[in-house]
Amino acid sequence: xxxxxxxxxxxxFHAAFASRILWIAFxxxxxxxxxxxxxxxxxxxTTSFRIRDFENGTRLKAMLASSLADAKSQSPAVSQIVTATxxxxxxxxxxxxxxxxxxxxxxxxxxxxxxxxxxxxxYDADAWQGTQRLRERRELEALPPRELTDSQRRRLARxxxxxxxxxxxxxxxxxxxxxxxxxxDFPASFAIDKTQFLTLVNQWVVPTIIxxxxxxxxxxxxxxxxxxxxxxxLEPGSLHLLLSKPVSRTGLLLSKFVGGCVFVFLCVxxxxxxxxxxxxxxxxxxxxxxxxxxxxxxxxxAVFFSVSVAAGLLWRSSILAIGITCMFGAMCLxxxxxxxxxxxxxxxxxxxxDLAVVDDFLLAATSGGGLVxxxxxxxxxxxxxxxDVFSGDRVLAPxxxxxxxxxxxxxxxxxxxxxxxxxxxxxxxxxxxxxxRNNWEPVPSLRLPTGTLRIDLLPPDRLLATNAGGLxxxxxxxxxxxxGEPTEPAAGSQxxxxxxSGTSSPxxxxxxxxxxxxxxxxxQSILPRGIALTPPRRIAFSPEGTAIYVxxxxxxxxxxxxxxxxxxxxxxxxxxxxEGEISAPVVLACSDSILLVARENEPLYLRDSKTLEVMRTLxxxxxxxxxxxxxxxxxxxxxxxxxxxRCRIINGTASESDTPGASWQSSYTLPIREIEAIHxxxxxxxxxxxxxxxxxxxxxxxxxxxxxxxITTVRRIRTSLSSWRxxxxxxxSPLRMIIPQTGELGETVAAIVSGESSVAIDSGxxxxxxxxxxxRILRPVLSCAGFIVVMLCVSCVYFSTRxx
Amino acid sequence: xxPTKIVAVDQLRKTYSHWSRRKSREIHALRGVSLSAYAGExxxxxxxxxxxxxTLIKILLGVVGPSGGTASLFSQSCGSxxxxxxxxxxxxxxxxxxxxxxxxxxxxxxxxxxxxESAIGRRSDxxxxxxxxxxxxxxxxxxxxxxMYQRLGLAQALMHDPDLLVLDEPTDGLDPVGRSQVRxxxxxxxxxxxxxxxxxxxxQEVELVCSRVAIxxxxxxRGMGTIxxxxxxxxxxxxxxxxxxxxxxxxxRDLAVELARCLEIDQTLIQTLPLPEMIRLELTTTxxxxxxxxxxxxxxxxxxxxxxxxxxPSLEQTFLKLVDTAVPPDGEASVLAESIAxxxxxxxxxxxxxxxxxxxxx
Lengths: 804, 362
Prior knowledge:
Largest interface: A-B, 27 and 33 residues
Strand content of chain A: 15-25%
Number of strands of chain A: 36
Number of helices of chain B: 12
Oligomer: heterodimer
Shape of chain B: elongated
Distance between the termini of chain B: 51 Å
Shape of chain A: globular
Largest sheet of chain B: 6 strands, mixed
């Protein structure tokens, strides 16, 4: 029965191989592959400093200047380093130490440090006594100096410099990948680590090739070649002969359709298999998923070919079929671009990133650098700071501030001017008190430490500010007092900074301390020495606020006050080295007895909150990165938001996690999709979930005896949409569903090739979460598949019912 | 024994609707056609351009659906899989994709007919031999002449050894040699007992090959039967005698009347035509007894008989006679004319295609 159709498809291969255009395309593909084949890479230790390695250049400048001005103000190691720097730089640093505004380019600092890598004169074991010794450094120092290769020697020098200057450098992999061409290094410096390299290949190079080379060039070529298939078939001498055979018209048309895809299949297969072999043999990236590009590209071609077939049936002209298909392609492109603009300009900036709740009031920070308050009377979000895609400002995640006045609801936040792409922003950074008493007008309070990245309420009555270099706390009363709010008489003395140099220091010392991110007036620096708060940094604290958990430089620390009852120094009580890649982001959340530690491509660890010993592990889904976790207040339960925009409820004490190989897949997943942010309100014991841009659900959970918690949605916020949002929802979204979004198939390809549903874009140390771009995997596939089915159905009905 | 009916068409009608910007028009391509073709016979369908021949064949193949009436092949509905498996079809302007050789084309169409690979190989050899393409079977069809192309088309139609061959103008556009070659194949097939439904407007070809003929004009069957039956129905054979009068010519001034009286036949069956030096006498009979008596009488009346010939009406005469009397019903004449014009245009355009194909071949 299917033999005739098989014959038609087989004949298409025959016809394709007889086509000169196919062989020209093959030749072009082979030339391209031959040009790409010499690309290779070499892996070496990460040694030289590059501008991107500096997480806080200002701090480096300040540390070096401070050490030069007063050798005792910094560790002896810094003094050793600054002594060995070139004379020019030293002169500039001296001027910085004297309080002058001197701009030193990061490249100058990098060159100075790179100059130290080849010599060992500046190193003094005693001076480095108090610095952090990572495992890699210990292993290299354990080797006899004569056995060290040049690369290892330079690597060791770099590790010593990094240890001497904590809080300055971003975490980098121990080994870097350098691209080569025919054995020669690329002229431009292009050193990235292996993980970044894989991400680059899988999420950028391959989708780009698919989008442009396959998505445009080959498909256009394919349409040119195949547009004549249907008009040729409809020629009387051909059609009548075909229809006299024992075939159905529908089957014949579908066979011709499949046969038409053969041309593109042959070209794409050549190209993709060639790229796969090159990436495997030359770059050691044997990613079998790359071969999925073949069916995806043919699928993409099928969308356009279905239009070409329908046009060919209607007008029996290959020229018209090509013209109509090109017009259709232009329409898809236009709708895609307009849709993308709507995403960027309309819904993107209003996405809720963080939220806080006090009583019935809700404050949310948006992706567009805005701050909004929900107004129940108008059922709208009222903007406190405007959300704008072009805004360069950043708003810190708001925190609820407990007050003594039962009639007042207050929040704390801060707006970092120009802080979207620069952690330090511009101008001074004031803590803002936003309360119902002031009619929700922001009131400036204490000045936050330079480069503050987030603020947290540290129970019971302190505010914790985290910046690039440290942690600082203040009391809420101090915040209120500074904001001009009435407060009860101070119970104790004003907080002092036992770790700081004291108020008696000269101005320039204070200025340098400020540059380094030190505590400002009213704040107390609590980060013990020896902790490098380098990205990926993350903090969490115990529900009582008696311990803070900090990650930095691939290590996890538990920090607690020496004497909780007094305003004393904080010290490290436990520390461990984290599993996995040093530069991978970490997610932390702490309950009464359990600390949850999650990283991408690593199991989820439930550790003892005091000893940091692993209590249980849960395997996670490959390609799904945890983004945020919150403790649910009791039963040692956690809610974990992942990059797939779903939220899983992890029960730390559940017996199912005791079994070996337990997975978070067995944990309960909230039945809400497209989750933007989660927040747990400790007062009302409610989990608040922001999803679908700016919809908010308040959930109450009662855990039953078995597995799934009984969840009740106690409140929903569905605000009235703005006119542009209405257009987006009721015009653009249906349009983007009906018109196949062929451009978005590139995202599907990226997801398939990388095996991940999203890509994390390094925020460059701004904020503690990378920016997540979720791939639209299903929508383009569904809209394209639906379109193909509809077009083929229409074509088949037309072809079957028409007299020829 | 009654021969098996292969093609059965009963009161078949086909109306094409044509929408233009101003109004819709209907073209009646077939107006109640009824015919039958039996196993083992070569059935010829004759008709002028625009008569509805191609429409009838399209309906038999299932390419076009009828507007009324019934048509069946092997008692199966036209276009059904069962019927299609038993038909071999050669279209009027055959188009074989240019990437094929004769052998690969036969393989392709064999697969299309559901044949196995071994059967295709075996049958290809036989047919290439039959149609005289052995030795050219690995050449691209681009290099084929029109005659070779048509013979290849015939081979593809025969690939699955069909019970019925439907041939649409198989020798159209061929030179005499090519025509003779194709006709040779048809005669071979006829002699080997194949049922053939031949659509042609080349009367000589039909006359030579077909055992039965239907004449179609303006969507109607104007005559059907063997060629002699058609001749009988639409024109009696005549015996012609050229005479030179003798001495007693004056006695028989009214030769026709005298002859009718003497032969005791109707006078209307005898016509005389005075020529300058002789008289032409036409007797509408070929009965030997009547001719013998007529000769005896004429000799007895002193007439010298210069020549004697028996004239039977040719198929062309019959055809022209039937087609000339084809007057469409009132009010549809213009439509028919347009239909014929349209068909002519279509054929002209296909002829153009053929020409261009031929050019490309050469």
